[in-house]
Design a protein that fits this description.
Length: 108
Amino acid sequence: MIKTTGAEFKRFYDDPSVWGKNGWCEDIELNVNNSIIIDQEIDSLADSDNIQILNGVIYFDDESDASLETTFKKWRKRQITTILMVEVPKEKAEALKIEIRNLGGRII
């Protein structure tokens, strides 16, 4: 079972390179903040949601298919950036933000 955030999952789900011209996904099941959601609720994901991919099958243009989890893992490996969710003492938050920007990152 793979874990991700709402922000990363939405980035994956909206990436045309995942789907090709006519690809689609069926039987999506996610554990979001300890509640199970299905296909129709993906648009309601918050960037900060904690997600576990439980089920889903992606059907590609060439009539092949793959699990949602496997496809997500392959997509994640191709990315040149990563999304982090961090916890820091309140008084050090501004210093962390400055350091992230100094390293070429951005706060989303």
